[in-house]
Design goal:
Helix content is about 50%, strand content about 20%. It has a five-stranded parallel beta sheet with strand order 2-1-3-4-5, sandwiched between helices. A five-stranded mixed beta sheet has the order 7-9-10-12-11. A two-stranded antiparallel sheet has the order 6-8. The chain has 13 helices and 14 strands. The radius of gyration is 52 Å and the shape is rod-shaped.
């Protein structure tokens, strides 16, 4: 078995006796000795294995040592192999120069001094070993550098990915803030316009109602007035939706029994949705009432049902469920800790993709065709729920369906408003004609209201401010209402 630490040394000479002599001298070096009796045999051996040192006799019959050295140096594997010439004749300086030019690293004259030859061979053998070790270390170092470079590249890619993700999250957060600011500004604008427009409509409706009383003998004119009233009422309904989106609508909350309210709507829902949609209900037993404006809740549920109908043109199932839920701090975003009724309106329609779902509650956003919706339905529902102290959640998946959850606070305590209304009904009306103080900063609304009250046979005083009302009350102590 060849010792992996030993190096190969090639001895080239055409005289066997000399080869034996070289072998005897170098045997003490402890390396692997290979013998070649000619230049051609040496070349054949070199094609099969690598050697550390080549000892060549300068004078050989077929190719001399110089020619053999030149041929060896042409091979890439042996361009740095140590070549030592052995010469039995006196070598001229020009021949020495030629040998070094052909790649020789040393000359050994004959007669050979064994200690000198062994010393030279040991030096070049150790140099060969160190060179190979250095090459292996360089290769290992290159592998480690490549491995570390790959790790750094991966870490850099992960870092870039994280930076990109953080940047994207920041941009999305900023976009959400900007969108919220836009919606807030739009809500303020919409609320202000809707409020003023609603006042105008109230004045129009009041005066139209009064005009009807003076046109009882003119059917044609009455039809025109009725048509105008219908248009004004549609405008009033639209302004209510806009106020609901802006969360500025006037609500009249009271204790509402959810199952009872929804059961009372079933017939209307069936007529609205048609025969191809099956309606199912699922209510928790002994579900506590909630405090909400029942009329607005009915309108919200009807909006959700109509949206579900439009999402199921070929038919499907609409489920309205209501259950009691306890919410802890931070459990449901947007909700304070407490007990809520979760009303879920679920359909089996086409559903919404993520892009549509993100914009579902935006005002005036609709996926319906022209003339088939205002885009205020979901925003109105969201505004009503938020104004009632709750929150709305939407879960939708394409080709599976949509579920809209309305989380509304459970009613706690006595219905003070209901008690107050009942007490008001028990109080007797003042006898005869009354003096009524009307306070409104809109002159048209005040005039319309005053006209309707006067038409009932009462006297009216109007003012446009709270301070004016206090002053009138001091100067007109006979005001009843």
């Amino acid at each position: 078995m060849v010792d992996p630490e030993k190096v190969d040394i090639l001895l080239v000479d055409d005289q066997p006796a000399k080869l034996l002599a070289y072998e005897a001298i170098l045997d003490q070096v402890g390396e692997n000795l290979i013998k070649a009796g000619s230049a051609s045999e040496a070349l054949e051996l070199l094609l099969k294995r690598n050697v550390a040192i080549i000892l060549i006799d300068v004078c050989m019959p077929d190719l001399d040592g110089f020619q053999l050295a030149a041929m060896i140096r042409e091979h890439p594997r042996f361009q740095k192999t140590a070549i030592i010439f052995i010469s039995a004749i006196q070598v001229a300086d020009i021949d020495l120069l030629r040998g070094y030019q052909l790649g020789a690293v040393d000359y050994v004259p004959v007669p050979i001094i064994p200690e000198l030859l062994r010393a030279k061979v040991k030096v070049f053998a150790e140099l060969y070993r160190k060179t190979r070790q250095l090459e292996r270390l360089n290769a290992e170092l290159e592998d480690r550098v490549a491995e570390r470079t790959a790790e750094l590249a991966q870490a850099n890619a992960e870092l870039e990915q994280r930076v990109e993700q953080r940047t994207r999250e920041r941009e999305e957060a900023l976009a959400q803030v900007h969108e919220m600011q836009k919606l807030e500004s739009l809500g303020q604008l919409t609320g202000g316009v809707a409020h003023d427009f609603n006042n105008l409509l109230m004045a129009v409706l009041g005066n139209l109602e009064l005009a009807k009383k003076y046109l009882t003998d003119r059917p044609g004119a009455l039809r025109l007035v009725d048509s105008a009233i219908q248009g004004a009422e549609r405008g009033a309904a639209l302004t209510k939706r806009m106020l609901a989106f802006a969360r500025r609508q006037e609500l009249k909350p009271e204790a509402v029994d959810i199952p009872q309210l929804i059961d009372s709507m079933i017939d209307m829902l069936r007529r609205s949705l048609g025969p191809v949609i099956r309606i199912e209900t699922d209510f928790e037993i002994d579900l506590a009432p909630i405090r909400v404006d029942p009329n607005q809740l009915e309108l919200a549920l009807l909006n959700l049902a109509v949206n579900a109908r439009d999402a199921m043109p070929a038919g499907g199932e609409l489920t309205i469920a209501a259950h009691r839920e306890r919410v802890e701090a931070g459990e449901v975003p947007g909700l304070e800790p407490g007990t809520y009724a979760r009303i879920c309106v679920r359909d089996t329609g086409c559903g919404m993709d993520e892009a549509t779902l993100r914009r579902a509650t935006e005002p005036f956003f609709t996926t319906k065709g022209p003339g088939r919706g205002t885009g205020l339905g979901l925003s109105m529902v969201d505004g009503l729920v938020a104004q009632s102290g709750g929150a709305m959640r939407i879960d939708s998946r394409p080709d599976i369906g949509t579920a809209v959850e309305l989380w509304l606070p459970v009613f706690v305590g006595n219905d003070e408003d209901a008690v107050e209304r009942s007490a008001a009904l028990l109080r007797p009306d003042p006898p005869g004609s009354l003096w009524v103080l009307v306070v409104d900063d809109d002159a048209m609304v005040a005039a319309g209201t005053a006209g309707m009250i006067e038409d009932l046979g009462h006297s009216v005083i109007t003012t446009n401010s709270g301070a004016g009302a206090l002053e009138l009350l001091n100067t007109h102590p006979h005001v009843n209402i």
